[in-house]
Every structure is written in structure tokens, then in C-alpha cells.
């Protein structure tokens, strides 16, 4: 009598686990991990390289490096004007791009009728997001420099031009991320509002925007970080490469020559002397402190308020 | 008599409320219209000066032996070849590494690993391009490239390409990971149910199902790479100009690099000289190229959304 083998848990496990070693699978997953490690290693080397060269400068000069103005003499060159410029740019970008961007997102998500005009605006925003930043610099050069020069604000190459250019540059980004956050708010919340007789704007202001606020905030902070790291558009829109001295008055801050942290980094990076290499790394550390802190804040916000409806 | 039945006009609320709502809507539409104005502004500011440039030169100068704007040599093939070379090198780095990272994060990683690795990729995405340019100039070129190829002296297009490649890794990884995450679980479970291994499921089931999004990721990355300026401006050398070259181990000029060096030495390139106007012609070319790539990329992105 032939015996059939009893089916036990052991035989099932055995047949599910293949006999032999899965070499292809192991090689593949090793390759995947390696490519991820490559990226992490690049990031570590990049930041380590800047720290190694820049920290000695900061240790030696201390706050003097942050509070000195630009100079062609390496021993007393500092980044004060860059810090002021970057702070002013951040303020202008926030004041211009955030309200216009969020209002546009509200329009596209909550108000826009499904017409051809809406589709044009929508497609247009997504195309603008893909336009290289250097092209926005040309817009700044052709439109904003000319505008401010015609208005008699210095020669037009001032921080107002730079701020407008960067605001226009990140506007599509603000719109897209805010629209995504608004879209994620479930319809039940809106219907509850309409159900108790709220008007459309009341629903948006009292219900939709507060619910979408964390997502909108994350997107806008990321966009701000992107703006503060941009160099090319500012070079075209008239930021000063090299040293300059600012006149004492507050008006000069707006109408006179300007620079920003990425511009100083670029300008010093082009200089061949070794001392400027170290200064460049120190300036880059200051720039990274600004942009990475903004990024980390945005990531933190998202993880903290990440909600699934 | 019974009370009047509610009519359409009563449901719309009082006149004051309607006026209010109308005003809000007008303000919002105005904000949305700003984006249209920006596009019109970009196109107008590029197109007029680009044509002014073409009118100011002898068209044969567009096919000179090199790009030397101050000497009236405006060779477009030179800067296009440089841009294509840098983009090709960049994609050779970011496509495999970005896709591998995406497959790992989407199909292999434990949730805890994802939670740590994704923010790190986002931090890399947040590094300003001028920093990567400096890194390419002071590390990739002298340490890596001259270590491997002792013949390469000075700045190289290869270093610029590698720098741009690093910059586009997070873009490829995040867009293609999103595409893979959008593949329904049922497909994976069916594959595992048939006894397929993880590698087979990843490469034969998930990857093909997500192919539209993956292609979109690569196209968008290429568009980003062509438009990347600061890495090229710092690491590719050739600030004064360049002869036509396709040698990755030498300096060269790209569309964006040429624009940056024209603008960075801008004190004597102002007014309406041909060199100054060439800035806008290059910008117009760049705009057309990236516009085309983004349109194609967008078509692929939409296709992913519709599939499931």
C-alpha cells in the first residue's frame, strides 16, 4: 500500500521556502541598499567637507564673521550684508508669494468653475513650476529692473527687484502645495458647513483653510527654503557680485546695491585663493543653516500634523 | 394662505451676502490671474529681446567655431552640445540611483527605515545648487575625477554633470516612488500568491505598472538638469567662452553656464550690445526646451493618475 505523505505545517513551510539560496534576489537587494547608501554618503561627505573647511573660520573669527561687511581682504571679510539681504528677501517673498499663492489655490480648488479659463490657469501654473530658475532671473532683469529704474528707485538693481523675482519664482510651488492640502480636506466637512447655512466663503475661511493649514504651512516653508537658496535668478536680477558698501540710511537698504548669502557663496567660490575657499565654506554653512533649518521645520510640521481623514 | 415656497433666489441668501461672495470671488480670480500675467511677462520679455539679438547679428555667427560672446561668436551648437552632455552624465547618475532608491523605499524598506531615509532624501533636495557647485569644484573635480583621470586638468564638464546628477537624485526618487506607491496592493498580493519572489514582484509587476510615472520622473529630472545653472557655472570652467567640444574631461560651456557667465561679468555686458541680448536668446531656447519636456512629462503623470 502506498503511503501518502502527511501534510504537516513543516512540509508547507518547506515548499513555500525555496530550496537553495536566492542569489539574484540577494544581489538585487544589496544593489538597492548600496545606491541608497551612495546618496547618504554623498550628503555626509558634502556637509562634512563644508564643516571641515568652514568651522575653523567660524571658530577663529566668531561673531566677527557674521557682523563684518564684505571685503576683498580675507582676514576681515564677513557676511553681514548677505544675512541682511537674505532676511529681507525672506520677508518680501513671504509677504508677496504666500497670500497670492494661497488665494489662487483656494480659487482653483473651491471656486473655479470647470471652464476653459480654469483649465488654462491650472495648466499654466504647472508649466510655470517647471520653468528653470535662471529664466525667472531674465524676467526680473527685463521687467522688474526696468520697472524700478523707470520709477526712479536707484538704478533698478535693488532688493525690491530681487524679492519680486524670487516671489514670482516660488509662486507656482506655493499654489501647487496649497492646492494639494486643500484638496485633501474631505467633502463631508464642507457639506456640514453648507448644511448649517454657511456661505461658500464662510466654509472656506472657517472650515477648509483651518483644516488644510498644516499642509499649506509645510508647503510654504519648503518654498521659502527653496527661494532663499536660489542664486542664478538673483545674479541676473542685479545682485552685486564683489564688495560694496551700503550707505547708512534705511532707504539705502531698499534702493541701493544688495546681496544675499547664496550670492556671497558664489562670488567667493569663484576666487582662486585658498583663504577664500575656507571663507566660502563658512558662508555656505550660514546658508545651509538657513535653508536646512527651514526644510527640517517643514518636515517636522508634516510628520507632526500628518493626518489621514 | 401658506408661506411662499423657497425659491432659487431665496436659497442664494440676502443681497448683502451675495455682494460679499461676489467680491471674494473677484479677489480670488484676480490672484489666480497673476500667474497668467507672469507667463505672459516671461514670454514677452524673452521673445522681444531674443529677436532683437537675432536682428543684431549675422546669422552665420550662430554656427561659429565656438561660444565667445564678447568676440561676436555665438555658436549655438557649442552650448547645446555642452548642455546635452551635462544632462546625459547627470541622468546616468540620477536615473539608476534614484530608481533603485525608489524601489527600495517602496517595495523593500520597513516602515521605520522609510521614516528615517525619506527625510534624508528631502534634505538632499533642500541643498542649494550653489553649494553643490562648490562641492563639484572643490571635491568631485580635484579628488574624484583627477584621481581617476590624471589627464584631466582644471574644470571638467564631467564634474558639472556629476554635480547636477546628485542634485536630481531626490527628484527621480520621490516622483517614481510616488508612482510605485500608487500601484494597488492587490497586484503585489496576486504576484506573491503565485509564488513570485520579491525581486520578481518588484521588477515584473510593480515597475511595469508604474512605468508612466517613472518615465515622467526621468523626463522632469532631465528638464531640471538642462535648466540647472549654478553647478555648471562653478564647475564646468569655460567662463570666458568655449570652442565646440564633446569631451567630458575638459571645460565646456552650456546654455545655462553661458547665461550665468554673461550675467556674472555683467558690468561691461549691458545696454543693447549683442552679447547682452544673447542672454535672452539663450533664455528663450532654454524655455522652449524645458517647456517641451515638461509638457511631455505632464502627459505621463496624468496617465498614471488615470490608470487605477
Labels describing this entry:
heterodimer, A: 309 residues, mainly alpha, 2 domains, 13 helices, 75% helix, 0% strand, B: 308 residues, MetI-like fold, three-stranded antiparallel beta sheet, 2% strand
Report on this structure.
The complex is a heterodimer of chains A (309) and B (308). Chain A folds into two domains: 9-58; 62-305, MetI-like fold, CATH 1.10.3720.10. Chain A has 13 helices and no strands. Chain A has helices at residues 9-16, 23-61, 63-67, 80-111, 116-129, 133-150, 159-183, 187-195, 200-229, 232-236, 250-255, 261-269, 274-305. With 309 residues, chain A is mainly alpha-helical. Helix content of chain A is 75%, strand content 0%. The longest helix of chain A is centred in the N-terminal third of the chain and has 39 residues, at 23-61. Chain B is built from twelve helices and three strands; from the N terminus they run ααββααααααααβαα. Chain B has helices at 8-11, 15-56, 76-108, 111-125, 129-148, 157-181, 185-193, 198-209, 211-227, 230-235, 255-264, 274-307, and strands at residues 66-68, 73-74, 242-243. In chain B, strands 2-1-3 form a three-stranded antiparallel sheet. In chain B, a hairpin with a 4-residue loop joins strand 1 (66-68) and strand 2. The chains are: A mainly alpha (309), B mainly alpha (308). At the A-B interface, helix 2, helix 4, helix 5, helix 6 and helix 7 of A face helix 2, helix 3, helix 4, helix 5 and helix 6 of B.
Question: How many strand units of chain B?
Answer: 3
Number of helical segments with 4 or more residues of chain B = 12
Helix and strand composition category of chain B? mainly alpha
Report the helical percentage of chain A: over 70%
Q: What kind of sheet is the major sheet of chain B?
A: 3 strands, antiparallel
Query: What is the rounded distance between the termini of chain B?
Result: 56 Å
Number of domains of chain B: 2
Compressed to H and E, one letter per element, the order of chain A equals HHHHHHHHHHHHH
- Provide mean pLDDT of chain A, rounded: 88
The oligomeric status of these chains comes to: heterodimer
**Large-scale geometry of chain A:** flat
Q: Given the helix and strand composition of chain A, which structural class is it? A: mainly alpha
Low-confidence runs of chain B (pLDDT<50, min 5 residues)?
A: none
CATH superfamily of the largest domain in chain A: MetI-like
The shape of chain B, in one word, is: flat
CA-atom Rg of chain A in angstroms: 27 Å
CATH H-level superfamily title of the largest domain in chain B: MetI-like
Work out the largest interface and the residue count of each chain. A-B, 85 and 86 residues
- Low-pLDDT segments, ≥5 res of chain A: none
CATH hierarchy class name of the largest domain in chain B: Mainly Alpha
Amino acid at each position: 500500500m502506498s503511503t501518502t505523505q502527511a501534510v504537516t505545517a513543516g512540509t508547507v513551510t518547506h515548499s513555500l521556502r525555496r530550496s537553495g539560496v536566492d542569489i539574484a534576489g540577494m544581489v538585487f537587494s544589496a544593489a538597492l541598499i548600496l545606491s541608497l547608501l551612495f546618496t547618504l554618503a554623498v550628503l555626509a561627505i558634502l556637509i562634512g567637507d563644508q564643516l571641515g573647511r568652514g568651522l575653523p573660520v567660524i571658530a577663529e573669527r566668531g561673531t566677527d564673521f557674521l557682523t563684518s561687511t564684505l571685503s576683498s581682504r580675507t582676514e576681515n571679510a564677513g557676511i553681514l550684508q548677505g544675512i541682511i539681504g537674505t532676511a529681507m528677501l525672506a520677508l518680501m517673498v513671504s509677504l508677496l508669494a504666500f497670500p497670492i499663492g494661497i488665494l489662487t489655490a483656494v480659487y482653483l480648488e473651491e471656486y473655479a468653475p470647470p471652464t476653459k479659463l480654469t483649465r488654462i490657469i491650472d495648466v499654466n501654473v504647472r508649466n510655470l513650476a517647471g520653468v528653470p530658475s535662471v529664466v525667472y532671473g531674465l524676467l526680473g532683469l527685463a521687467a522688474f529692473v526696468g520697472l524700478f529704474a523707470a520709477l526712479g528707485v536707484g538704478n533698478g538693481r535693488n532688493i525690491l527687484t530681487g524679492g519680486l523675482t524670487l516671489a514670482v519664482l516660488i509662486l507656482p510651488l506655493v499654489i501647487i502645495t496649497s492646492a494639494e492640502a486643500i484638496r485633501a480636506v474631505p467633502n463631508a466637512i464642507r457639506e456640514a458647513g453648507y448644511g448649517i447655512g454657511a456661505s461658500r466663503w464662510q466654509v472656506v475661511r472657517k472650515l477648509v483653510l483651518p483644516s488644510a493649514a498644516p499642509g499649506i504651512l509645510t508647503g510654504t516653508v519648503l518654498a521659502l527654503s527653496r527661494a532663499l537658496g536660489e542664486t542664478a535668478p538673483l545674479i541676473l536680477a542685479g545682485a552685486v557680485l564683489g564688495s560694496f558698501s551700503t550707505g547708512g540710511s534705511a532707504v539705502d537698504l531698499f534702493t541701493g546695491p544688495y546681496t544675499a548669502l547664496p550670492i556671497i557663496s558664489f562670488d567667493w567660490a569663484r576666487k582662486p585663493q585658498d583663504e577664500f575657499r575656507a571663507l566660502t565654506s563658512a558662508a555656505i554653512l550660514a546658508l545651509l543653516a538657513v535653508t536646512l533649518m527651514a526644510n527640517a521645520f517643514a518636515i517636522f510640521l508634516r510628520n507632526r500634523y500628518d493626518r489621514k481623514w | 394662505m401658506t408661506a411662499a415656497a423657497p425659491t432659487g433666489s431665496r436659497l442664494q441668501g440676502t443681497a448683502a451676502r451675495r455682494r460679499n461672495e461676489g467680491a471674494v470671488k473677484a479677489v480670488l480670480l484676480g490672484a489666480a490671474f497673476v500667474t497668467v500675467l507672469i507667463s505672459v511677462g516671461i514670454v514677452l520679455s524673452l521673445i522681444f529681446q531674443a529677436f532683437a539679438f537675432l536682428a543684431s547679428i549675422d546669422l552665420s555667427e550662430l554656427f561659429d567655431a565656438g561660444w565667445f560672446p564678447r568676440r561676436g561668436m555665438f555658436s549655438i551648437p557649442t552650448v547645446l552640445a555642452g548642455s546635452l552632455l551635462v544632462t546625459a552624465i547627470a541622468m546616468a547618475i540620477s536615473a539608476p540611483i534614484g530608481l533603485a532608491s525608489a524601489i527600495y523605499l517602496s517595495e523593500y524598506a520597513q516602515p521605520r527605515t522609510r521614516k528615517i531615509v525619506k527625510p534624508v532624501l528631502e534634505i538632499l533636495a533642500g541643498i542649494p545648487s550653489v553649494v553643490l557647485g562648490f562641492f563639484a569644484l572643490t571635491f568631485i573635480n580635484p579628488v574624484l575625477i583627477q584621481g581617476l583621470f590624471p589627464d584631466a586638468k582644471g574644470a571638467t564638464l564631467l564634474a558639472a554633470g556629476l554635480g547636477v546628477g546628485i542634485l536630481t537624485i531626490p527628484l527621480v526618487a520621490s516622483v517614481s516612488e510616488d508612482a510605485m506607491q500608487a500601484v494597488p496592493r492587490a497586484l503585489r498580493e496576486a504576484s506573491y500568491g503565485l509564488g513570485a519572489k520579491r525581486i520578481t514582484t518588484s521588477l515584473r509587476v510593480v515597475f511595469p505598472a508604474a512605468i508612466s510615472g517613472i518615465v515622467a520622473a526621468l523626463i522632469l529630472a532631465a528638464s531640471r538638469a538642462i535648466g540647472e545653472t549654478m553647478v555648471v557655472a562653478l564647475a564646468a570652467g569655460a567662463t570666458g567662452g568655449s570652442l565646440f567640444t564633446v569631451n567630458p574631461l575638459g571645460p565646456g560651456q552650456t546654455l545655462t553656464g553661458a547665461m550665468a557667465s554673461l550675467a556674472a561679468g555683467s558690468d561691461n555686458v549691458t545696454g543693447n550690445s549683442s552679447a547682452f541680448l544673447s542672454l535672452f536668446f539663450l533664455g528663450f531656447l532654454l524655455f522652449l526646451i524645458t517647456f517641451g519636456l515638461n509638457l511631455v512629462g505632464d502627459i505621463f503623470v496624468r496617465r498614471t493618475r488615470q490608470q487605477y
